[in-house]
Structure formats: structure tokens, C-alpha cells
User: Which sequence fits this backbone?
């Protein structure tokens, strides 16, 4: 039976991990994401499903534990916030190279460096353009509600296993800390059989399996890269998700993801009350990015405002999508400052309508 | 109906749980709700605040700069949020410890001596429930039975024997809240 609860984004995400049939969580506390590991420790899912929860000695250890568990075909995840995610980047590149599925959650706070614990979206480039080394991509899901934080855990594990690739949920301090009504999905069974690529020992009748991201022969390494690229083209064809609000009659368009899309929606409502016909485009997947859908919308509008809690990151993809069809401007607050709906409306009027 | 509320005070006054109780009560009444706390260093000793939104419709932004209602429980919170109440909105303040009165003339202002009342009840922990009672008297947006249901969701089961005490505190708050200023 489905249950309705009032939950914090971080706690709801942790509960969703248990229900999604995760086998293991490895993490290390950091604000504003610590409720994920706190909830899992309190809930002790070993008693409910057998899921293992461990506080590692560091973020680096946690991501490598994920690599080990994923190599055995297990549904493994980790979570952290920006500085901790930077530490995990080497591991994520190895997971991508070894074609291992996993779920990584980044509850973003403002940087660079230790920065501040307040919310931000300044890890867009790191998540979407590849924060680790090498030609790899990571599916990036951007929840804007507590409900999506729950739903994307299940979706994230499914996509990770479908494509044998790391998936990231790019949350932030607002989505992680806020409480909303949430409908929890039913408990999913944990995987019982190891996939054929998993390193679970060479039993009679089972081929030997090697999980590695190392290929010293360039001819072989190129084949690995071609296989990865083919996989990424498939992901780009199949997995794009986005949402539009009041775009049908829109003369102007705002583009925003995650918590900024929520604040922009309020700004859109205020603009509509003033008679300004503005719509909102919200990418739910940041990789693969909904370039085509945004390109089509650009035909109909006089200008596009990209709203972000950073100094201008997603705006580069918005410009690629719009491809010069209309003007694109950026409005951002950063360093942990949250834009107000009034500020966003003002930016729309100054930079796009009056500009 | 949409009620956008900021609740602010010292850490330990029950500011965050007040917002949670209102939101859970809203869930019990079939409303859309959103609760967003301050989680910065100010929580460790300074002022704490939370935004609670209760609405018939889907809620867009969980963070706001203008509010229908501000409930302020100490002087720094009054200083910070008096100007954030929408014209025609509502300000409720705790009398105890305030060194100046609110100045706005374009909003409805109420005071509540919740701390003194909680001392009379021999339990200062019900302070925040007294304030909730006062708020619901002025803005009856939630049925009392749903508030009790919401309270039971927020309180761990081992404290459910305290529900009648909290209900009593809500009634006390409804009785003691006083209007200080009415918009002409």
C-alpha cells in the first residue's frame, strides 16, 4: 500500500533507497546531507531488507566500497555534499570506466573549497560535464520536490543497471532540508541473482569475469571508449526528461532546474498576474539534456532567462539548445544566497523584456 | 487558500517543530504543505526560523521573502521579519523579552504572552503550542482535530500521553491572544 508522509528531502531519499531494494549504502557525514546516513543508521535496514549501511572512514573510501559492491552486482549507493563529491570523483570515473552501476547523491552546497553549508547549484559542470577524468558521462537527475527525491532513487538504480553506468541525483540544500508531503512506493525486492558481468567467483559453468577500467593496449582502450560512446548515444535517445509550465502561449521563457525551478515558478505566477506571458522549462535530466525540446520552444519566444544558483553553468547548455534563435540571459545568486521570486521577476523584466 | 508563514525565535523555543506541526496538520486536512528550516550556524545559539506554507493548490517556491503571517518570538526576529509581512498581513509576537513594539500600520498585529502562560501551566515546553493556539484563533485555517492528528504524527509515540496537555495549551493560547493594532 502506498503511504503519505511529511518528510525531509534527505530522509525521504534514504527511505526510498531501502524501498528500492538497495543492497548497500556507504557514506560519510557532511552538512546539508547528513540526514541521509543518520536516517539509515536509525532505521537499521539490515533488519528490514538485509541492506548494509556503513559509515566509511572517508568519502574516498565510501566510493571505493561502492565500486567493490557494484563489482559484485549489488545495488550500491553513496551520498555526500559538494566538497565530499569532489573527493569521490576519481572513484566515479573508475566506475564509469569499469561500466559499473551505482547511485551517487550530491546535496549541493556552495563552493569553491569548503565554501558554506547553504544551498547552491554550482556543481552543475562537475556533474554534467564530467568531474572526473576521461571521456565519460553520468546520468544526472535533478529533483525539484521531495517526491522526486524519492522517485529518482528508484529510477536512478533502474537506469544504472539498465546501462551499467553511474547515476547521480543532483539535489541541493533546499530540496534536502525541506519537508513536503510524499507518497512512498512499495518495498521492492533486493536482487537475488548476480548479473553475468558480476565478479562473484568462477563456479562451474560460469565464465571468468574481470571488472577493470585498465586497458594498456590503445586499440583495446579505444574499443572501450567506442562502447561507452554508443551507450551514451542510447541514453541520449531514450532517457531525456523535462517539464514545461505555461509554455503554450509564452512570449518569454525561463529555464531552471531543481529548487531554482520552484522559485522561478513562483516568479512566473507573479509575472502572469502582471500580464507578462512567461513560461517555465525545467530539465529533469541534466544529462542527457533536453536540447531538442528547448530548441523548439525557442522558436516561439522573444527571449530566454536561465535562472540558477551559480554564476552561469547550465546557461551554456541553454545557449547550445537555443542555438542563436533568440537571446539568452543568465540570472544567478551564489555563495549560498537563494534568489527571491521578486528578484527573478525583476531580472526577467530588466534583462529580457526591457533588454 | 494559501497561507505563507514565517516562524522565528531562539533555538529551543520550538520554532521548527511549530512549523512541522502546522504542516502535518495541513496534510491531515488534505492540504498541500511545505516546510523549510534555517539550518545554518544561527541554529546553534542565535535565531532559528522556518517557512511553513499551507495551501489548497500545489506550492511553487518553498522559500519566500514576503509572508502572509510572521510569528516572531524574540526581538532579533521582530527586527528581521516585521518588514517582510505583506501589506494587510498578520504579525504575532511574544511579549516576553521584547524591548520595542512593532511599528507597521498596514498590517494586523497581535501579541501573546505565551511564556507567562506556560509558566502558569507549570510546563514551559508547551510554550510553542500556546502560540499555535493563538495563531489558529486569528487564522482558523486548520480544524483542531487535524492539529491533534498532526501533533501525534510529529510527537514520538512515547510522548502521546502529553497530547491532552498540548491540546489544553492550544486552548489557552486561543484565549490569551490580544489584538494590538488593526488596519484602519
Assistant:
Amino acid at each position: 500500500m502506498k503511504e503519505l508522509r511529511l518528510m525531509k528531502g534527505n530522509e525521504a531519499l534514504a527511505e526510498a533507497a531501502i524501498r528500492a531494494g538497495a543492497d548497500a549504502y556507504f557514506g560519510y557525514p557532511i552538512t546539508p546531507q547528513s540526514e541521509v546516513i543518520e536516517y539509515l543508521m536509525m532505521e537499521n535496514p539490515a533488519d528490514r531488507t538485509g541492506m548494509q549501511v556503513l559509515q566509511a572512514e572517508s568519502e574516498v573510501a565510501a566510493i571505493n566500497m561502492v565500486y567493490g559492491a557494484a563489482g559484485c552486482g549489488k545495488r550500491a549507493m553513496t551520498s555526500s555534499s559538494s566538497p565530499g563529491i569532489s573527493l569521490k570523483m576519481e572513484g566515479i570515473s573508475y566506475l564509469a570506466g569499469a561500466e559499473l552501476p551505482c547511485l551517487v547523491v550530491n546535496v549541493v552546497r556552495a563552493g569553491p573549497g569548503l565554501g558554506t553549508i547553504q544551498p547552491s547549484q554550482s556543481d552543475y559542470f562537475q556533474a554534467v560535464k564530467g568531474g572526473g577524468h576521461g571521456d565519460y558521462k553520468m546520468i544526472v537527475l535533478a529533483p525539484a520536490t521531495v517526491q522526486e527525491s524519492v522517485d529518482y532513487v528508484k529510477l536512478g538504480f533502474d537506469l544504472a543497471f539498465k546501462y551499467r553506468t553511474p547515476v547521480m541525483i543532483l539535489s541541493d540544500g533546499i530540496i534536502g532540508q525541506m519537508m513536503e508531503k510524499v507518497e512512498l512506493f512499495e518495498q521492492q525486492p533486493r536482487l537475488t541473482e548476480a548479473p553475468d558481468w558480476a565478479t562473484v567467483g568462477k563456479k562451474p559453468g560460469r565464465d571468468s569475469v574481470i571488472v577493470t577500467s585498465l586497458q594498456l593496449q590503445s586499440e583495446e582502450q579505444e574499443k572501450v571508449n567506442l562502447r561507452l560512446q554508443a551507450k551514451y548515444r542510447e541514453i541520449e535517445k531514450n532517457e531525456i526528461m523535462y517539464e514545461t509550465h505555461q509554455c503554450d502561449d509564452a512570449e518569454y521563457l525561463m529555464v531552471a532546474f531543481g529548487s531554482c525551478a520552484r522559485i522561478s515558478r513562483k516568479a512566473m505566477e507573479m509575472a502572469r498576474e502582471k500580464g507578462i506571458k512567461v513560461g517555465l522549462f525545467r530539465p529533469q535530466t541534466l544529462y542527457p539534456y533536453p536540447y531538442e525540446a528547448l530548441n523548439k520552444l525557442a522558436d516561439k519566444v522573444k527571449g530566454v532567462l536561465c535562472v540558477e544558483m551559480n554564476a552561469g553553468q547550465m546557461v551554456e547548455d541553454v545557449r547550445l539548445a537555443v542555438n542563436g534563435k533568440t537571446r539568452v540571459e543568465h540570472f544567478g545568486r551564489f555563495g549560498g544566497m537563494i534568489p527571491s521570486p521578486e528578484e527573478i521577476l525583476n531580472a526577467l523584466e530588466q534583462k529580457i523584456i526591457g533588454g | 487558500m494559501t497561507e505563507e508563514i514565517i516562524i522565528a525565535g531562539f533555538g529551543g523555543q520550538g520554532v521548527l517543530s511549530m512549523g512541522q506541526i502546522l504542516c502535518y496538520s495541513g496534510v491531515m486536512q488534505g492540504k498541500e504543505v511545505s516546510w523549510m528550516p534555517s539550518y545554518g550556524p544561527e541554529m546553534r545559539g542565535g535565531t532559528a526560523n522556518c517557512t511553513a506554507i499551507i495551501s489548497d493548490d500545489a506550492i511553487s517556491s518553498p522559500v519566500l521573502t514576503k509572508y502572509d503571517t510572521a510569528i516572531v518570538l524574540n526581538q532579533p526576529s521582530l527586527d528581521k521579519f516585521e518588514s517582510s509581512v505583506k501589506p494587510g498581513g498578520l504579525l504575532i509576537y511574544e511579549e516576553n523579552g521584547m524591548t520595542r513594539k512593532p511599528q507597521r500600520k498596514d498590517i494586523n498585529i497581535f501579541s501573546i504572552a505565551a511564556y507567562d502562560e506556560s509558566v502558569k501551566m507549570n510546563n514551559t515546553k508547551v510554550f510553542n503550542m500556546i502560540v499555535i493556539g493563538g495563531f489558529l484563533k486569528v487564522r482558523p485555517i486548520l480544524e483542531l482535530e487535524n492539529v491533534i492528528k498532526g501533533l501525534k504524527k510529529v510527537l514520538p509515540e512515547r510522548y502521546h500521553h502529553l497530547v491532552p496537555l498540548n491540546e489544553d495549551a492550544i486552548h489557552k493560547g486561543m484565549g490569551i491572544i490580544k489584538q494590538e493594532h488593526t488596519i484602519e
